[in-house]
Amino acid sequence: VQLVESGGGLVQPEGSLRLSCAASGFTFSTFAMGWFRQAPGKDRELVSIISSAGYTYYEDSVKDRFTISRDNAKSTLYLQMNTLKSEDTAVYYCAASIRGILSTRLDDFRSWGQGTRVTVSS
Fold this sequence. Notes:
Layout lengths: L1 E5 L2 E3 L5 E8 L8 E6 L6 E6 L5 E3 L7 E6 L4 E6 L8 E8 L11 E4 L3 E5 L2
Parallel strand pairs: 2-11
Antiparallel strand pairs: 1-3, 3-8, 4-5, 4-9, 5-6, 7-8, 9-10, 9-11
C-alpha cells in the first residue's frame, strides 16, 4: 500500500487549498479513506472520512469549509479546503481504512501517507 499526499503549502487566512492523495497497491474503491491532521504540539486528529459508497463525515471545526471526495477511477482522494484559518495549520495525512463503511475508529486506519504541510498565515 502506498499513499502519497500533495497540494500543501502556505496560504493566507480565508484562502483555499486542495489536497490530493494518490493511492496504489490496493483496491482503492473498496475501502473508506480519511484525512487526518497534526498541529505542532498536538495529537493527530481526524478531519474527514469518506466511505467506499461516498458517505462522508467531518469534524465539527471543518464542517461547511472542507469537502472530501474521491475519484475511484484515478485511485485518488481529495480534500478541498476553503475559508482556511490559522488553526488549520498542520501536517495533513491521508489514510486507508480496513473497512468500506464510514467508521471514525482510528484503529481502522492502518495505512498512512507521509503527510503534506499546510500553513495558514498572513
